[in-house]
Amino acid sequence: MMEIGLNHYLVLSTILFAIGLLGVMRRRNLLMLFFATEILLNSVNIAFAAISHFYGDLSGQMFAFFVIAIAASEVAVGLGLLVVWFKRSGSIDLETLKSMRG
Amino acid sequence: MFEAIAFYLFAFLTTVMFIITVMSKHALYSMTALAAGMIFISAFFFMLGADFLGAVQIIVYTGAVMALYAFGMMFFDSTRELKEKTTPSLLVFGLGGMAALLTVIIVAAPIVSGNITAAYPIVEGVGNTQAVGMVLFTKYLIPFEVAAVMLLVAMISGIVLAGKKMDVSLTLVEDDETSRLDTEKEKATS
């Protein structure tokens, strides 16, 4: 209980990932969907850093760096697209994206 | 002892902050809670001995990403209360959870069964930043360069998408159509 091991970090990472997944499923605003995606990426980063520490391998930290880089570029491109879409439709709700009624 | 206290404290704080992010009805509360959660996550990186990663987490996430979100929210109607899905489909929840669980099992099963050894062991006698640099600029040099090019491409695309002709719509609407929409909007407001 008092000794913090790898499993503690992995369980925490799983809990945070579940919170992010819940957010992705219940949110309707596209900006809030981006926030939930950030939570997902961060929870995986915790798992990477923990495994890197407990196995004495730096590859996990390297992958966490690349995940952070990808998250930064995702935000830049995603917000640009979101601004364009908001100018076009006046709303960033998911329902406005349903242009093809199948 | 202190590590356990710090772990449980920050685990509780991070979980609460992210639950607020997911559940809050106001976009501004949600964004502030997300920024706080990012800072609390960097505490885990410091506890795990990944000092450089913790510093990068604070600088990139709360310095760059959250600032970008804050600027982006100026474009949107962020004071309005968010509407949520009124009828959460149980089928979607169940199938989504099953798919996530299946993916984890598929990916994790070969890893759990095999013996895990360190491919690039942490070098003894140097700090974390130096060890990260030694691995990043030898084994991971090509991905590092590719990530740099990807960030450049993302920056250019962000500028092109959001920065050109800030007052009117672009890329999807023709020029004459834009002017027509503007006159219609002026008629509607007057």
How would you characterize this protein structure?
The complex is a heterodimer of chains A (102) and B (190). By secondary structure, chain A is an all-alpha fold. Chain A has one domain (6-90): Helix Hairpins, CATH 1.10.287. Chain A has helices at residues 6-26, 30-54, 59-89. In chain A, helix 1 packs antiparallel against helix 2 (30-54) and helix 2 (30-54) runs antiparallel to helix 3. Chain A starts with 5 loop residues before the first helix and ends in a 13-residue tail after the last helix. Among the domains of chain B are: 1-78, Four Helix Bundle (Hemerythrin (Met), subunit A) (Up-down Bundle), CATH 1.20.120.1200; 140-190, no CATH class. Chain B has 190 residues and is mostly helical. Chain B is built from seven helices and no strands. The longest helix of chain B has 24 residues, at 90-113.
Low-confidence stretches of chain B: none
CATH fold-level topology of chain A: Helix Hairpins
| Main β sheet profile of chain A | none
End-to-end separation of chain B in angstroms reads: 67 Å
Task: Give me the secondary-structure topology.
The complex is a heterodimer of chains A (102) and B (190).
Chain A: H1 6-26, H2 30-54, H3 59-89
Helix pairs in contact in A: 1-2, 2-3
Chain B: H1 2-23, H2 27-47, H3 51-72, H4 90-113, H5 128-136, H6 141-163, H7 175-189
Helix pairs in contact in B: 1-2, 2-3
Quick structural gist:
Chain A has 102 residues and is mostly helical.
